[in-house]
Amino acid sequence: MATLRVCGRTDDVSAGSSTSLRQWLGGRWAILFSHPDDFVRCELELDRWLDIVGHAFKQARVRPLAVARRTSAIDQGWVSQLSGDRGLVSLYERWNGRTLLDVPSSRLRASIDNIDQRFAMIIDPALCQRRAVVYGATEQPPSPLDLIRLACRLRSDQRAVDLASRRLTARETSSSSRMPRALAETKNTPTPTTITARSLPNFGQNRCVAQSASR
User: What is the enclosing helix (H) or strand (E) of 203?
Assistant: First the structure.
């Protein structure tokens, strides 16, 4: 699956997919591209560029996904070539032919609909937006390699927070320690952030992309 159809819960097109976004992620992080072709670099031959980007996504255990609206076609570009599939991914979960009410999916759809520019959005396995990089139609977007590095850094930061939270929970042995737990849970909730392409930090060459990060 290579294209996420952003439609309503009762939309027939979205309902046609048997794979939900959460299932497609399989516990991995992903980068959603509103206009994937904007990210192709002309400095290299397409085959060479695909090899480099495909290797980076695989090593980082991050998945690329094109985003389509009601009027958009299924992606036929490099995202589909990397995934080897040109099908649709449903934003919402389905059971017995019915679309389930899914709060994380609804929040993700709202985040996508609220962006009025071209974007690349990093999401985690819980369908939370972790970072959205926006750019104009005449601007050059960041390299997919920079976005992968950013996703790796955000994932590492989240793991550190989760580890600290587990250690804190392990030390709580009485009801008097419930307040620290509540505070820890609040800190674990990611805050959606949108930045411009020009403000995307440079995390150095090949850092964390060359590492095979396990879930």
Answer: none
d(CA 183, CA 163): 15
pTM of the model: 0.78
pLDDT tens sequence across 55-84: 999 999 999 999 876 555 566 688 888 876
CA triplet 70, 195, 75: central angle to 5 degrees? Answer: 30
Q: Is 174 left (phi over 0), alpha (psi -120 to 50) or beta?
A: beta
Residue 161's identity, in one-letter code, is V
Quote the radius of gyration of the chain (alpha carbons, Å). Answer: 18
Helical residues (DSSP H) of 95-143, grouped into ranges: 103-113
12 to 6, 22, 94, 98, 111: CA distances (angstroms)? 12, 19, 12, 11, 21
208 three-class SS: coil
